[in-house]
Design goal:
InterPro entries: Acyl_CoA_acyltransferase, BioF2-like_GNAT_dom, PEP-CTERM_FemAB-rel, PG_Glycine_Bridge_Synth. There is one protein chain. This protein has 356 residues and is of the alpha+beta class. It has 2 domains: 138 residues, Aminopeptidase, CATH 3.40.630.30; 130 residues, Gcn5-related N-acetyltransferase (GNAT) (Aminopeptidase, 3-Layer(aba) Sandwich). Helices cover 37% and strands 28% of the residues. The protein has 12 helices and 13 strands. Strands 1, 2, 3, 4, 5, 6, 7, 8, 9, 10, 11, 12 and 13 form a 13-stranded mixed beta sheet that branches. The longest helix is centred in the N-terminal third of the chain and has 18 residues. It is globular. The chain starts with 13 loop residues before the first strand and ends with a helix.
């Protein structure tokens, strides 16, 4: 049953197979609010890398044309439970629709798919927020950071607040070098750096095949930028390029990266690299409110924009907890930081694939 003042649902919702490629691609390409996480490229990559099946909830008009989509990954985990997630391993996505009535249809359809599969919850990480019964808003946890890129290197430096700008100037005079690419060597070095970084934070690493699948699916719209000291990778980031914006998505650094100011060079070099690719905007992604990454992005001159997500729960169910900063995981996080890297890389992907 819909809540009061909730737009009437439009007819024509269905769960479509992944094979509806042409219509899906065309709808995402034409919709101004589409993100890379609505794309079939992203959904296929996640499915190929993790085995999480994608259910495309679609709405159509009387002619059969798409009027809205909601891709959902069925994430299953012995540790974290199961959920339909829009979309897996993404920070955005959610309902993409022509109007409020279609959005209501998709929200109802997502709940219907969850019931049919016996899944206790649906998680939306962006898009239109459903207002129907059974849905709840989740705010105050994450903020997004994005701003326009400056016209050139000099203007980009001036756009960075004074204290952070001084750090960037220092590292520009260092002997660190930067490489970009998508080949096997860049992928290997990126994964080693990223896996080490998240292990040091006490977090299990995603499967390497997820990074490979995303790079392969997005082609020239995804690449890796790596900062090197005497040829050795010390910081690295895998970025997406979407409608004129660069999105540094999976990045990290070794323990010595901080002293070397490698992260400062990495993000400034990425701004330069993205501008050369024709980008006009830098999307620094999301961070949890009150954390170090949140403060770091503010130091670069980015203003936080509160993110509001939504979750549907079946009656009597409680939300799954996948937050690594949660008190219930404090002991596990501390122990994970002490694991040898080879062990963390062997066990981590088995755990992380269940986070979705």
């Amino acid at each position: 049953m819909n809540a009061p003042n909730h737009p009437a649902a439009a007819p024509g919702v269905s769960a479509a197979p992944l094979g509806e490629a042409t219509a899906w691609d065309a709808y995402v390409a034409a919709h101004p609010a589409a993100t890379p996480f609505h794309s079939r490229m992203w959904c296929d990559a996640v499915t190929a890398a993790t085995g999480h099946r994608c259910h495309l909830v679609a709405a159509r008009d009387a002619t059969g044309a798409l009027t809205g989509i909601l891709p959902l990954h069925h994430v299953r985990s012995a540790l974290f439970g199961q959920a339909l997630v829009a979309t897996g391993f993404a920070v955005d996505g959610g309902i993409l629709a022509d109007d409020a009535a279609v959005a209501a249809t998709l929200a109802d359809g997502a709940a219907d798919v969850a019931r049919s599969l016996g899944v206790p919850s649906v998680e939306l990480r962006g898009g239109v927020l459903p207002m129907a019964e059974g849905w709840m808003r989740e705010d105050g946890v994450y903020a997004g950071f994005a701003r326009d890129l400056a016209a050139d290197d000099a203007a980009e430096l001036l756009a960075i607040p004074r204290k952070q700008r001084a750090e960037v100037r220092k590292v520009l005079e260092s002997g660190l070098t930067v490489t970009t690419g998508r080949d096997a060597a860049e992928r290997r070095d990126h994964y080693r750096v990223y896996a080490t970084s998240v292990r040091n934070l006490g977090t299990p690493v995603f499967p390497k095949r997820l990074f490979d699948a995303v790079l392969d699916a997005f082609g020239d719209d995804a690449d890796i930028l790596t900062v090197r000291e005497d040829g050795r990778a010390v910081a690295s980031v895998l970025s997406l390029y979407w409608r004129g914006a660069v999105m540094p998505y999976w990045g990290g650094g070794l323990a010595e990266a901080r002293a070397l100011r490698a992260n400062e060079l990495m993000y400034y070099a990425l701004m330069r690299h993205a501008r050369a690719k024709g980008c006009t905007r830098f999307d620094f992604g999301r961070s949890k409110v009150g954390t170090g990454p949140f403060a770091y992005k503010k130091n670069w001159g980015f203003e936080p924009r509160p993110l509001v997500y939504a979750r549907w729960l079946a009656p009597g169910e409680t939300p799954r907890d996948t937050n690594p900063t949660s008190a219930k995981y404090r002991l596990q996080v501390d122990l994970w930081k002490k694991l040898p890297l080879w062990a963390a890389n062997r066990i981590g992907p088995l755990i992380a694939r269940g986070l979705g």
